[in-house]
Amino acid sequence: MTTASIQAAPSLAEHFARVRGSSIALSAGLSAEDMQIQSMPDASPGKWNLAHTTWFFEQFVLAREHDYRPYNADWHYLFNSYYQSVGPMHARPHRGLLSRPSLAEVLDYRRYVDDAVQDILASDINEEMASIVTLGLQHEQQHQELLLTDILHALYSNPLKPAYSTGSDTPATASVPMNFVNGHEGLVQVGHDAEGFAFDNESPRHRVWLAPHALANRAVTNAEYAAFIHDGGYREPTLWLSEGWATVQREQWQRPLYWQRDLVSAFTLHGVRTLDPHAPVCHLSYFEADAFARWAGARLPTEAEWESAAVALPVTGNLLRDAPCMPRAAQGEGLQQMYGDVWEWTSSAYGSYPGFKTLPGALGEYNGKFMSGQMVLRGGSLATPYDHIRPTYRNFFPPDARWQFMGVRLAQDR
Amino acid sequence: MTTASIQAAPSLAEHFARVRGSSIALSAGLSAEDMQIQSMPDASPGKWNLAHTTWFFEQFVLAREHDYRPYNADWHYLFNSYYQSVGPMHARPHRGLLSRPSLAEVLDYRRYVDDAVQDILASDINEEMASIVTLGLQHEQQHQELLLTDILHALYSNPLKPAYSTGSDTPATASVPMNFVNGHEGLVQVGHDAEGFAFDNESPRHRVWLAPHALANRAVTNAEYAAFIHDGGYREPTLWLSEGWATVQREQWQRPLYWQRDLVSAFTLHGVRTLDPHAPVCHLSYFEADAFARWAGARLPTEAEWESAAVALPVTGNLLRDAPCMPRAAQGEGLQQMYGDVWEWTSSAYGSYPGFKTLPGALGEYNGKFMSGQMVLRGGSLATPYDHIRPTYRNFFPPDARWQFMGVRLAQDR
Amino acid sequence: MTTASIQAAPSLAEHFARVRGSSIALSAGLSAEDMQIQSMPDASPGKWNLAHTTWFFEQFVLAREHDYRPYNADWHYLFNSYYQSVGPMHARPHRGLLSRPSLAEVLDYRRYVDDAVQDILASDINEEMASIVTLGLQHEQQHQELLLTDILHALYSNPLKPAYSTGSDTPATASVPMNFVNGHEGLVQVGHDAEGFAFDNESPRHRVWLAPHALANRAVTNAEYAAFIHDGGYREPTLWLSEGWATVQREQWQRPLYWQRDLVSAFTLHGVRTLDPHAPVCHLSYFEADAFARWAGARLPTEAEWESAAVALPVTGNLLRDAPCMPRAAQGEGLQQMYGDVWEWTSSAYGSYPGFKTLPGALGEYNGKFMSGQMVLRGGSLATPYDHIRPTYRNFFPPDARWQFMGVRLAQDR
Amino acid sequence: MTTASIQAAPSLAEHFARVRGSSIALSAGLSAEDMQIQSMPDASPGKWNLAHTTWFFEQFVLAREHDYRPYNADWHYLFNSYYQSVGPMHARPHRGLLSRPSLAEVLDYRRYVDDAVQDILASDINEEMASIVTLGLQHEQQHQELLLTDILHALYSNPLKPAYSTGSDTPATASVPMNFVNGHEGLVQVGHDAEGFAFDNESPRHRVWLAPHALANRAVTNAEYAAFIHDGGYREPTLWLSEGWATVQREQWQRPLYWQRDLVSAFTLHGVRTLDPHAPVCHLSYFEADAFARWAGARLPTEAEWESAAVALPVTGNLLRDAPCMPRAAQGEGLQQMYGDVWEWTSSAYGSYPGFKTLPGALGEYNGKFMSGQMVLRGGSLATPYDHIRPTYRNFFPPDARWQFMGVRLAQDR
Predict the structure, then answer these.
(1) What digits encode the pLDDT tens for the residues C112-145?
(2) Residue C188 β-bridge partners
(3) With contacts defined as CB-CB under 8 Å, which chain A residues touch B31?
(4) Nearest residue of chain D to residue C162 (CA atoms)
(5) Which residues fall within 8 angstroms of residue A228, CB to CB, at 6 or more apart?
(6) What is the complex's ipTM, to 2 decimals?
(7) pTM for this one?
């Protein structure tokens, strides 16, 4: 992680205010009850997300001040997520049972901690402190995306299928046809080395040899994925990884998460909506992305292939600004949709880069300990804050996860 | 079920208003979030309890009126509990995920249905209608007890161990020593035949032959149960039923539910409190009650033994009036605590009386279909509305259930 | 348990030889591998059955002799079933993993123990010793039935569907039409008091009041049960106990265990055979028996009703002599098939009789500790040794068990 | 896969006879019952291993002959492992329930198929046929290792802890001290391109850039691993991957599989034996290998690092010849134990090499479909046939697997 300079501290205060405010804005339309529920062990209640990100600042920023007294010492146990170094924690699957503290109390907690952090930011701070505050804001933004994906899952579990928000559909327009764009070949460098923040898992920058390959110019669309389904994709074991086929059978998968049985509509943040055939397909597991690619005579890109292509592109796309927008059809020449719309599954298992070092202390638990059993996704989604993504950013989820805004871009050997 | 006469209709309206109001009063101190959570599949959220009892009146009373339009047709699926005859239902373990409708909307629903039922009660109604309204109110009272036991479990699942209500402890006083009172012997009659309401499972009244026996004059106390624990009761397999011992090992039981590790305090509706050694032990499974009795050289009473003794006693004790009170030490001569304080496990498996007939239609699903795998409890508890209990009342739970206010009275062969 | 007199000791030796020999005869056609496998936790391997019954004599008969040295001290742990008083035991679900000792070694063990017991029986023995040997032989006979039911299940788990033995089908003949025979009414006595052996759970003899009722003259047939299936019995929740319906859905039950999808053939000890429409339906759970009775407008008998009718009948029927015979159509006037063919589910939960006392010591674990969660069956089956059954005999299984030879006789209120 | 030339056919016949005979030799000391049992879903019975490898030749070699009639058409379903392309199969966890066909019948089956294959090998065969026979023999050798690891697990499940074979312990000698040997740096080539057989997953040969690093000169020893345990390694969450720590807690791991509680002895193929402190530690999961490396201030090697070092070494070590030998202390200069003793966990997730192509047809299911959720191991073990291993060989198991002969070699960044 490179760090903000001391001079940036004033703008850090503004950035802090804006990012923290965004979390509140994203949950403004939700009731205390909506913010309470946890629809599966992997998801967290909205209220818990708001409290945990606040605890992060309290634990890693405020607690460094020698005279700081915790807002409520009993809450440490409740809102620690997985930092074993700083003590035991409430079991993740039971976060939805914490009716106390109430949402109102959590909002008070946020205000208290915000004020205390702003007091610190108002004075001269050293580089380390600045970098931890920055990390806390990046962390907050990750939870903004989770807040959206978790509430989508929670509302989906309600037979009434209520919407997170009203939203007008983007008029469906034809997307550009799929074609393949040659990628870099030979020795490339990947990983973070530029100015600005990056997580520890994006470093060190290192060399990778790339074989000849090409990337699809855009993400796979709903119509293309529907063709896979109509062709019997979910019934043909030879298209699937062994573990994927076992999952299809155990979970009775027949279509992406949130798709309706009719295969032309799906549950979204705006309620049940007709699927735009030209928009990127969303809410696929790695197993489905991989099976689709095999069916299509292609494969998934590696993360190095993806990054070496993405690094030259402007970091722009259907990312989160004030409110999430549904995926949209791709337009234009060259590689499209590399950022935003849907996270793109890569064929790379999530692991450490050569020479990887975790952050010192408890923050070393941030990324490194999850380096088994997960696959890397790249590029951000409609729920990723627009200033949170970068070419080297590595997201990771287990291969059966589907509740994030996940899709697929194809690749080919050349 | 015998039914109220038509003349009673005016007082039925008053009774309706009072019982329905009690549900609201019992949940008045709970937040929307408290009323949302479901801490285990066997429990229901408070909000759901309020909605389901309302649905019961809508389904079985209002829907009999030919021009009635449902308050919200989509809610039928949500708030039907287990009446297969009237349609499919939301899966019980997922009741806690229904953030919508909100508590405020459920309270509106209650008012709407209350007004509609009162309109009916304001006119002449026939005996059948009166009897269904009465059944609905008995049902409501059952859910008042469940509301208390379910919220106790829900709050217990929170590491903060918040209290349902503040409450002053009754000063601990010595309880009367345990002794055994001879019961009726030979042919007795049990089951309902008196005036007034009873559930279908309390009928028909029938003859049972009782062997010589005696009942303890009071419930087993916390101190007596602690002696069982200190004597290694939870480590000695020969004291337990085979299925009970398997449960002890699987669940790692070492003390009653809600007891703290120190064996002198427990979580209660009033938060963590010191156990009164003289008060009835509470939150025991059938397996624990049975093992304790074996350890004590006694046995559990049969439900016929219990009823034949209870029928002569006034229906009074530590039952629910405005707010629940903790179990209290027994005082006085003769059989004490037969009503109230804690439900008493009997050795009788829950089954049908000879000649049992279920109610016609969907209401036939009320009791009969649960006649397997459960044991009968008698006498009501501190959470049973004072006018809801009677000598013939049969409560029933699986033998590993502990979250109700359940205790134990001993019996002996003579 | 009443006991054999000392004078009977000579014939006890003969009886011992005959019963022990029957176990060997029943397994003679099975390979070491057939005798090894355990197809579900509730079943045991044939080899284990042979070893455990031998251990029973070693533990409860031979070990009483002060100078007895165990055949192999390490085997005590392996072949103790559930007698916690005499030490820990190998976990039941893992019995099928004991490839050592081999079948040949177990047969040696049997011969060794047989010789040692015969040495004892050759001398004067006291009444207590005689009664324990008798208990051991009754126990052996129970395991002969289990050996047949367990191997049937084990062979069924093999896609090749191999037969336990060849056997000629009894020619199908029409059964007598079903009609109902009035039972005893008023005060009756049930339970064991006669000469001869009985298990502890059959005592004490005691009074029961019977309401007016009638029993069907014969068991329900395959044709009658098929009519229930064709009428949608497995799809109609209101016919089922709540727990039964949950089981139907979870287990996807659509027909009795071992019935083929065609509903006209079934897997049997003789391989896949055409079902005799007139023979008793077999391999039903309690839940299915209960649902069938409800569909038929009848109910299951209580065990007291069953016993009070059975006590007057000769103990004869399709019971096990040399080799098991398939169930047969009922012929003749009056109550038929009360003994043999299939065990008959009663509506009585398995519990203790008034004044019940377990046997002293470890043998007290024989029956009493299973008195929860099980239902009583009466009358024996085609796999019950002909001299093992009696009117007071109480068999018991959980309500979802189906792998025993279990069927149903209807009853009615009068 | 490169293939044997036609001229090699005679020696292929000899090779076939030798490899097929080895399977029989390895199981010679086991009874029919030992060969029957399956101690966990991941393991297979010995009998099944013998039958499945035979089926492989029948399916992929004999069935290519137009007039071949299957030995027993019903067995196809039983002995197909996971080749979805050629039909459905018996569920893996139930392989231990197949008492029929018997071991004797399976041995007959082997002889029949062996004769038929030898008939083919006696004539001129084309290159494709030769390559499939070769694949079948490589497959057979993989199952020879599995036969040993599966029977070790099966015998371990028996409280009697019987030995697979008697065997004299190698006298314990001090191992060479651990030091680190610099590896290749920069661009290297890995993957198969040499003469001779290789599996599809070892190709294509491709370039990889290696950062500066070093490999330990030998495997971690029992004494070194015991020091990790004594230092609290199994109680310190920060040493573990998140998924690893969850496994430690769920499975209550406290030491390697097969180690006794005393930490100085372990169950082996020769029964319970004292651990040689200087020999490689064995039966570790990836999670344990990774945690140990972190504790030791090192890391696991990548598979490319391992291979680039191993390619220069002679393929020799403690591999399987006639009978398995326990791991031994390392002696000598430079990299030791790269082949044999224990498989070495790498930090590389099992995936496809750039440009990977599966074999055509059903054989394409051999390796590729397992490329998710598993980690690569390198170098072979004491149970790997000596002529089965090579520098490019990629073994793979889930990160929690421990029943193979798995150990750990450390690596370091330089």
Answers:
(1) 999 999 999 999 899 999 999 999 999 999 999 9
(2) C208
(3) 32, 99-100, 102
(4) D100
(5) A291, A292, A295, A296
(6) 0.95
(7) 0.95
